[in-house]
UniProtKB/TrEMBL annotation:
Keywords annotated in UniProt: Membrane, Transmembrane, Transmembrane helix
Listed name of the protein: Carboxymuconolactone decarboxylase family protein
Keyword Membrane: yes
NCBIfam families: ahpD_dom
Residues passing through the membrane, by range: 124-145, 165-184
Highest taxon, organism lineage: Bacteria
GO molecular function terms listed in the Swiss-Prot or TrEMBL record: peroxiredoxin activity
Organism for this UniProt entry: Candidatus Thalassospirochaeta sargassi
InterPro entries xref list: AhpD-like, AhpD_core, CMD-like
Domain Carboxymuconolactone decarboxylase-like: 36-98
SUPFAM superfamilies registered for this protein in UniProt: AhpD-like
A Pfam family it matches: CMD
């Protein structure tokens, strides 16, 4: 797992896009999100959090994974970003989750098509929606970590105080704005936005 010195830095503009995608996914894909069981959801969220380096999200989802029956060996592999020890039924989703996080959400449409071929359209949409939700959590968690580390004398030299504060406060305005915007958007197959 990365420490906050190696965590990805999310800016305000990127976070705004992440919030919009997460709110859209939560509003339009509620049924599909329910197709992902808690253990699978935790594994997806750990895969994304490992790529982004969010120690807060990693801690929370490690606890969820353990309580949902993940073995310590499988968990160790997930925390190292290695899906070799993962359930074969989950491997395609975990690879896609890593790819999504690694490309900042600009994933290869062919990779999503393979996800649809593997899991079907509804479950693939649920997987993508889950990934978008944890990306939102990571953008906030990493900046919160940077902010609190600053007061412990462990400031990340690449992070700026104004960015940390803006990213932590922006959901107060952007979640309601995204909800209103997405209220009138038609449900479409999740694609690169």
């Amino acid at each position: 797992m990365k420490n906050n010195q190696n965590s990805r830095i999310f800016g305000i503009v990127e976070t705004a896009g992440i919030i919009d995608k997460a709110v859209y996914s939560m509003m339009k894909y509620q049924r599909e999100l329910k197709l992902i069981d808690k253990k699978f959801e935790s594994h997806i969220m750990l895969a994304v959090s490992e790529v982004n380096g969010c120690r807060i999200c990693t801690y929370v989802h490690t606890q969820h994974a353990l309580t949902s029956g993940t073995s310590e060996e499988e968990l160790s592999h997930l925390l190292d970003g290695n899906i070799d020890g993962a359930d074969p039924e989950e491997a395609a989703a975990l690879l896609f989750a890593q790819h999504y996080a690694d490309t900042s959400g600009s994933y290869d449409p062919a990779a999503f098509e393979r996800l649809i071929e593997t899991y079907g359209k509804d479950k693939a949409s649920g997987i993508l929606a889950t990934i978008r939700l944890i990306m939102f959590g990571n953008s906030l968690g990493i900046n919160q970590g940077f902010f609190t580390d600053r007061f412990k004398g462990k400031r990340n030299p690449d992070s700026r105080l104004w960015n940390e504060i803006l990213v932590m406060l922006c959901p107060l305005v952007l979640i309601p704005a995204a909800a209103i915007r997405n209220l009138f958007r038609r449900k479409t197959q999740l694609q690169v936005q």
